[in-house]
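hey so u asked for the seq, here:
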Amino acid sequence: MITVSGLGKAFGGQVLFRDATLLLNPGECYGLVGANGSGKTTLLNILGGTEDPTEGSVTIPKRLQLGVLRQDHFLHDEEEILGATLMGNPDLWRAMVEREALVEAEDGDFDADRFSELEETFQRHDGYTAEARAGEILEGLGFPSEIHRRPLSTLSGGFKLRVLLAQALAGAPDVLLLDEPTNHLDILSIRWLEKFLREFKGAIVVISHDHRFLDNIATHILDIDYETVTTYKGNYDDYLVRKREDQERREKELANREREIAHHRQFVDRFRAKASKARQAQSKLRLIEKRAEALQPLPVSSRRYPNFRFESRRPSGRTVLGVEGVKKAFGDGDELNEVLHGVDLTLERGDRMAIMGPNGIGKSTLLKIVMGELESDAGRVTWGYETHPSYFAQDQEARFDSPGQTAEDWIAGFCPGRTLGFVRGEMGRVLFSGDDAKKRVGNLSGGEAARLVFCRMAIERPNVLVLDEPTNHLDLESIESLVEALQSYDGTLILVSHDRWFVSQLATRIVEISEDGIRDFRGSYEEYVHYCGDDHLDVDTVVLKARREKRAARDAAETRGAGNLSARGNARRGADAGIARGDRNRYRGGSLRKKLNDITRRIEAAETRIAEIDEIFADPAFYADTPIEDVRTLETERASRQGELDELIGAWEGIETELARLD
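ran it, structure tokens below
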């Protein structure tokens, strides 16, 4: 178990999170989410011991072994792929290396005692099966056994990072700390990784922008927002519902408190000038000050949602694209690698085609050929009448012509004749405003570069969008916004993506590329799985219910359950007609003051209980540990108490008004 107590981190005057208290238990998987720049990687580094917090502590048992996904893919360039993987268990790796050196030593240099010590370490870490286990992990991540002895330097950057992931998994750790482990995996490797993580016995903390991946593995979500870290039970879909409910409840409570204080202030302003009511006004003012102290404003959310928008300038012809007999191979001789084996495709207007297949099968190659960026070895590509495609390449950040150019100037280059106001307005939609618009394109993060390219594509108003792994560097909020924009797009869509939720929300046609050719299925992915029986995206149902349906159902439930309680309770008026006017007023005044004292006690009791409930609600652990039925019960009591308080305050004000009239 890892214990996090009062943890905080700030850079200069910017607070990422504060007072974070967490318990990370074996057998649980914690998905770590938050906006770009909110502190996800920072928190992971603090847990891993490579970064210090500003405040608080992390307690890790001494013998607990951490498996951390490193990002330096040049770290073990001269090592064999299998050897680099085995380095995930440092004690075993050192024992293996020294043990092998002793075995190869001359007879006179052999140290039997040291060899015995190493053999004990070797056996304690199951050294005789370690290579086999590491080999299974490598194969699961897409490395066939025949290349396990190759040096790491022969691999691309993406495959080197896969080896570093294998290294983290192969060390038999007690805790796994994984930062975007699916970024360079294909769909089949992601499915294998999900199975591995579900069977893992230790604790896992994982950062991912893959909605479906988090749904399939997470038992809890750690949400960095509002300058703190909140734990939610359940997977990512569960978190979305609870998070919105939590946010709406907190904002509603603040609004209620602010209205209550404004109501009290009106009373004080009305009676402050009257000498006879000065005491009551001061009493009321103390009540207001007490309530104002309890009013704690919410820190600003770090989440920002870009407003992507794609529109066609004009419709294309019915036939958008023809691909006939396209072939492509790389290398020659014994190193020849043929990736496309005579691809034939016809794309019709309005198609939303997802191209699938393992890494290296030729998906991106096909898109480059279609877009004229790569020449095929055979075959032909023909664009249809009035087609105007726009291309999002996988290596988008490397495609800026002048790294020293500002983002604003780069976008302005696609807006001839447009005003600076138009340029800034379009950039603002994708979260480039103020100083962000003046950033040099060569200094942009992957997510910023992607948003800037989508801004360019929106300005171009194409009738065909060609997207190669568009979600790779986007946070979850940006991915959700992108899906909404593409669902509303009236043109034709071609996409390659390993993000299964993204594909399931958009595709109406599935094209699978394999060694045997292509399989072309017209329909949603759910239909593809049903009719073809071959699920390349997930082991569970692919299509999620649309989030807007959940939101509509939740809003309807809230409407049914909400009650509008208006202040009421006018004080009794009139007096005994048989009593003289002065005596009647004194009699009436005494009765009203007695009732006023009783109401004041009831107001204090209601406010005390409301404050107790609010304190319970303010504890993030309450929502993580409390059954939803108990949460609803407490929310109902809170609403009932608030209604009672509103009625009592109304009665209190009515009596005060009547007493003022009698005086």
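Residues 2-235 form a domain with the Rossmann fold fold (CATH 3.40.50.300). The chain has three domains: 2-235, 241-301+563-662, 319-544.
lmk if thats what u needed
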